[in-house]
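Internal QA ticket QA-208
Title: Verify multi-chain structure generation after dependency bump
Assignee: T.L.

Test input:
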Amino acid sequence: MEIVKASLTLIPTRDVILPPVTSKVLKYLIMSGELFPFLRDLVSSRDKHKPLFISNLGVNGRRLVLMKPVHVSRGTALDAFISYPLRPDAITPVNGVFNTPYGEFQVTLNSFMVLDEFQPPQGNVVRVNFVSPVLLSSMIGLPPSLNPRFRGRGSNFTIPSPGLIIASAYKTHQGLTRRFDDVKSFKLAVLVNALSKVINFRMRPVTVSLGERGDKVRKTRGVKGWIEFELPPEFRGTMKYLMVGSYLGIGRSRGIGLGEISLEVKDLGASSKADLSGEQEPRS
Amino acid sequence: MEIVKASLTLIPTRDVILPPVTSKVLKYLIMSGELFPFLRDLVSSRDKHKPLFISNLGVNGRRLVLMKPVHVSRGTALDAFISYPLRPDAITPVNGVFNTPYGEFQVTLNSFMVLDEFQPPQGNVVRVNFVSPVLLSSMIGLPPSLNPRFRGRGSNFTIPSPGLIIASAYKTHQGLTRRFDDVKSFKLAVLVNALSKVINFRMRPVTVSLGERGDKVRKTRGVKGWIEFELPPEFRGTMKYLMVGSYLGIGRSRGIGLGEISLEVKDLGASSKADLSGEQEPRS
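Actual output:
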């Protein structure tokens, strides 16, 4: 199944107050039938790992994912994207001024990109940027045979590791094929963690408001930052899962724009590793 | 086997230039027979996971682990500690002025503490502070059956997770009993990661010089910062491994003072978790 990423610009026609989770603007435009009406069923579906991503709104390359509503001046160019499975009517022109509970926006379509997962970028080193907070479930790393015993345990606030990232991207990929293989995702989590070489990282926890319910603010915790690591030779093929993840996100709450990642792939060659970790044991 | 932690103050009698890995000062004093002469064999032993920790020198609660030699003014109080197995002659008075290749130091013994691992602190939440950079081997998380196939792979520069920390502390504990169980350390790494709840963390990678060899500076990468997490009920007993880790360190290069940790144990109770992660699934 191919995936398409539709990139949009939204410009408020007057000053607006955006909700903390700014993906709600695009979600409203889909659900009200103004934009991409064929996605309504997918948006409201309760399926796990569904092949859909609605990004938060961005300004100057930073996504607005916040704890409080935010004021945005009229005329500010906000960027966003929606990713979904390619279908005959999936690529449609989008242009117009639309009203939402969050204000009025002029919406322009900038590009459609179609993911070719059979042409993953060449390289053994990948930097994964967490463009919005990522929430990777710790339970991916539980042996599936123990799932019944520990149902409902674990946490979605975890420290992203190469294995958790690859296994989460694999889950997203499974959402396309609708064939779920918990043994493979468990093995990926464990083996990629054991055999990868972390090159560098920056990570910090962030708290995200998910909106109000009654007089309580629903919050969640995620991680922003990036990690650069070398994929083990045996797992270079997992780059295609990361590619899918760069369209559809990874981890929990992708439907509201969390788990957005971007990739930078390089080829460092094995020899350069010695400079990075003097104490490392020699490769056999 | 009981462990003792001997805390010392070292005051340079003149301005000194300390090496980047400041634990070398104490190591020299042991190897030259001036301090704790009974530790010489242990210091020079090539055993893995040996029950010995020589800390770096600290000023105002910060350990000096650096990329370049550092100037310290005479009269500055430097603190340090050595941990080792308790033995009849292990607790000896220490007081005097000693010469080293790094300058002359007045050394005073402040305290001996004996670890009682059968009295671990009560609580389900632990904050592990990385007092010096930690280097946790990714290979702890490899199923032991695959060890022969992947020998020499993986990395010691990893992102500390609850499972890696507990499994590394267990390895340190095994160094006391000299009974090694790679299946148990693997299981701890995997299951503690899957079932723990991270509460908060701050982490940053640091580069440490290990000294010069010819005209090349040997470097390694580690992680500073801290992580706070809730131990799963099934693994509360692992607190005793962390206790041992707080005396003997965790991970690689403990012999030169890397992997020093301190602990803060709290009891938060299960209900408070809901505030920290609004999206979390209910506990069964």
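Spot checks passed. Residues 271-284 of chain B have pLDDT under 50 and may be disordered.
Status: verified.
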